[in-house]
Amino acid sequence: MTQMQDDPLALDRQVCFALAAASRSVIGMYRPVLAPLGLTHPQYLVMLSLWERSPRTVRDIGQALRLEPATLSPLLKRLESAGLLTRQRNREDERSLDVELTAAGRSLRTKAELVPAQIVERLGMDVAELERIRDSLTQLLAASDG
Amino acid sequence: MTQMQDDPLALDRQVCFALAAASRSVIGMYRPVLAPLGLTHPQYLVMLSLWERSPRTVRDIGQALRLEPATLSPLLKRLESAGLLTRQRNREDERSLDVELTAAGRSLRTKAELVPAQIVERLGMDVAELERIRDSLTQLLAASDG
DNA sequence: CACAAATGATTAGTATACTAACTAAATGAC
DNA sequence: GTCATTTAGTTAGTATACTAATCATTTGTG
Q: Given this model, what pLDDT does residue B44 score?
């Protein structure tokens, strides 16, 4: 009944605000969980992409994570400094950079396998509900990404 | 059937990835829409909070937007430089900083009122579906924010 | 009332994340 | 076969966003 709820500009009505705030908040939950692995959340996502396939090019990782190469470039250098991956030019196409896990990078996976369950537990939400939300977000991503 | 879909670390299974990617992608849609107003997306959210109530303290805005004062401080200075608001110490409590819209800040609202419809149109999604997603995200925010 | 504790904002330092501009390498048109 | 075009990454510049440390003011305790 208040004017606020009818107002299209009311903060609490904005999908973009709910999205931005939830994203920051959930990523914030990962911080203490990922700290023992020496990873930030974006770095964790890069590692997930490499555990699925390695080596991959910067372009390929960027397409998987929807990140610009300009964002990935320094991020990958930090992971290289941490000893988790190597970066070297592709022999067949010198423009491409192959990013490949090191032994340390591969073995970090064991610790990472414990992460998802810890997050779900801290969230205290139903897994089925979380999967529903994930699917809605994937749909939203497709609509905005076109 | 592939091992990937059973893998708890598969990128496409992560709520956090869907959340981060959708957030960046949707915020990216706002960029061309907000550019004519001279606002970034976080600045737009600050303006939404001030159109609801002005003046407000930095603390108060931070609680509404779930942003740290350290994030808001430089952001508010930019909006002050843009002439959209003023910043001055509260008379009754000199620790607090009152943030108040200027005439230019108030009048920008007219242009901003056209923003939500433009985004919905570009997304091409059902408004009811978007509201469902927003409510799920609000729920997720509450679970992660505790 | 003096002084420790708490509160509100700022500053410093690190890490994303974007666009735009640039470099180097490969492709394609003629 | 040469040269314009395209493609892959990097660099520069700006704006978030966080934690930790700091500063100033206010509150609360004895």
A: 98
